[in-house]
Amino acid sequence: MALIAVNNKDIQTGFFLNSLFSALTFSFLFVFNQVITDLIDRYKVSKKWKRYLSRLGLHFLIIIILTFLLSHVFKYVFGWGGLFLSDNI
User: Fold this and answer.
1) Residue 87 domain-assigned?
2) What is the average per-residue pLDDT within 72-78?
3) Is residue 6 part of a domain?
4) How high is the pLDDT of residue 68?
5) What's the domain count of the chain?
6) Reported confidence tier of residue 79, pLDDT bands at 50, 70, 90
């Protein structure tokens, strides 16, 4: 049950919610990218492969966690995102 009643069968609603989901995801990622850069600079990681590997690992974890959390928020607020949460369609 969603907090806000939304017609999920309407294609325009689906496009709007998808664009909102994508915009939120990318805005959080840009903020976390700066946080990761500051963190790597603070600990003075000088070798390039360590910088790339640590950025890759942290971005991977942040994207997985953020996608999971945002999918839950969208599911419980709008009733949208059941595919990711393995809900019957």
Assistant:
1) yes
2) 85
3) no
4) 86
5) 1
6) confident
Across 33-48, average pLDDT: 87
**What letter represents residue 2's amino acid?**
A
Residue 3 is given by DSSP the state S
Q: Which pLDDT does position 87 carry in this prediction?
A: 56
Whole-angstrom distance, CA of residue 84 vs CA of residue 55: 25
Coil, helix or strand for 26?
helix
Give the contacts of 63 (CB within 8 A, at least 6 positions apart): 25, 29
Within a domain: residue 17? no
Which residues, 6 or more positions from 81, have their beta carbon under 8 angstroms from its beta carbon? 21, 71, 72, 74, 75
- Exposed, middle or buried by CB within 10 Å (0-12, 13-18, 19+), for 80? buried
Altogether, the residues listed in the chain come to a count of 89
Which residue range(s) make up the domain with 74?
Answer: 28-89
Residue 10 falls inside a structural domain: no
Task: Report which of 63, 62, 84 is spatially closest to residue 18, judged by C-alpha positions.
Answer: 84
